[in-house]
Amino acid sequence: MIPGSRVPLFALIMAYVIAGALLARPLLAEPAPTPARSQHPLLMAPRPSPTAIGARISPMAGVTSVTRQPEPTTPEEPTATPWATPAASPTPTPRPVQVLRSCPIDGDMDLLAAAPIHIVFDQPMDTDPSSVVWSITPTLESRVEWLAPEHLLVRTAPRQDGVEYQLVLERARSREGGELGRPLVLTFGQGGMGAPIPILMYHHIDALEGTEPPDTLEWTVSPQQFVAHLNLLAELGAHVVSLGEAVDYLQRGEPLPERPVVLTFDDGNPCVYQNAVPVLKERGLTATFFVSPAYVGDYNVLSWDELRSLVK
Hints:
Layout: H1 9-24, E1 53-57, E2 64-68, E3 99-103, E4 117-121, E5 133-137, E6 142-148, E7 151-156, E8 165-171, E9 184-188, E10 199-202, E11 204-205, H2 214-219, E12 220-221, H3 223-235, E13 239-241, H4 243-252, E14 260-266, H5 270-275, H6 277-283, E15 288-290, H7 304-310
Parallel strand pairs: 10-14, 11-12, 13-14, 14-15
Antiparallel strand pairs: 1-2, 3-4, 4-7, 5-8, 6-7, 8-9
């Protein structure tokens, strides 16, 4: 109790409590009344999206409705299908260059005087002078020229009789880039023993029983022996040429293949037609037949029709 006052202590305490409540009232905010839910769905204001929005005015006065505008879409461009890259074709390997024919042939010691040297290849060649490398010993002045893409000509200064020369073709390149398979080596001369062209002569190609008289055995070769002869020639690298080709080489210097050999048959015996001709045709070989016209058609000589069938 305050001195000099008649107010009881209880009343004073109540006064302080009421005054504190009145002072604290503005700080206690009452919750806002919840608006009544509209009965019309268009009057409901959706929450704005964080994305782009737009506003439109509702037909109902005083109400603004916010609606989401669709985002513009960019049409997808069609994906182009890449063209298939064609696989690179492998580069063909150039064929090695081979020599088909020459003049002189190796070992010809009676080459025609002043005859040029011919070399025939198996494919068109690079005719640039730098693509050919050759040498001649003993040294002879020489130059090359091309008669055709496959035909090389080497012209030399005059050669001396009795001198052995050697030509070495070290390099020759084809148009495709192929190189010479192996160097060509030709030994030759003039005024010597002649050209190494064997000529094999046959009379009878017939079966032998071993009881024949000596003269028959001397002129007869069995079919098996004849085939063995041809096989041996092939193993030795010989090339069968016609008699006419050999003559052209000897008289005019026409080129021949390596190791030429000539086959001939005398008398035109029917056994040759029966036993040798089929073998020659099968192997693609040529031969020369020597026949006496006065005996054509006799019992032991080929007929004219058979002879005509032998001509190409």
